[in-house]
Amino acid sequence: MTEDVVSVETPGNRDDVLRILKRTGISGVPVTKEGRLVGIITRKDLLRKADETQLSLLMTSDPLTVPPDTTIEEAAEIMIKRNFRRLPVVENGKLLGILSVADLVGAVSQTKNSEEIRLRYTRPTFALWEDTPLPLVGRIMEISGYDAVPILNQDSMLTGIISERDLIKQALIEDSVEVSDLSNGTDDDEWTWESIRDMHTISFGISKVQLPLKPVKEAMIKEVVAVPQNAELSDCALKMKRSRVDQLPVTNGDKKMVSMLFDRDVIRALLEK
């Protein structure tokens, strides 16, 4: 596990969480109250609840935790079955650390598993055109459930990868003022004292996490780490660990992308020993 955990205290500020995610590149932060774990806020929460500012409404409350004597096999099984990317490690109510998918990928890199990834670990994916605007990319990733998507140019060549981490780096806080009509809803157009009296409006501030309207090619990672179909699993896990990526494009003999290897699939090897 990672012991030196970055966390936020509630009540707190959403903007502080965004700054932490941008600065560190991590995918989520624990939320504590008076030293006790009460929730977790992830990149997905910020992107999906763009107009929410309260940590208590952004976070997943009472997250599943594990004790420090949990085995990595048990942790991998929980993450795979529950589709989690992290598990808080807690003892006597105190947060001791965080175990992430990346930590388990590091464990796989040490297993010397020589199985070829194409046999059981890769999966089909889809790609986006490099001029697709970022807000649309974010929405497509939200609908599809993919954390990362390969990017192609007009010649169908792989030119980059966009991930949630890259979207968060681009995210901006946009403040605006909206007006709400609280009138009695009458259709009477007469300018009478009664109708004027019943017309009420209220102005209120809106603060949203927004993605700038620019093409994905300006935000994507261009130096893509790819692997061939016959690559060995432990070698791929080591590439993920060293490059600090959650996925690897898989190419055929013609150097064209044919599938993806995701970290969640890599850690399945811990259950198949």
UniProtKB/TrEMBL annotation:
It holds the Pfam family CBS. One of its GO terms (biological process) is methionine biosynthetic process. Residues 1-57, 59-116, 121-177, 220-273 form the CBS domain. The keyword Amino-acid biosynthesis applies. Keywords: Amino-acid biosynthesis, CBS domain, Methionine biosynthesis. Gene3D superfamilies: CBS-domain. The keyword Transport does not apply. This is CBS domain containing protein. It comes from Methanoplanus limicola DSM 2279.
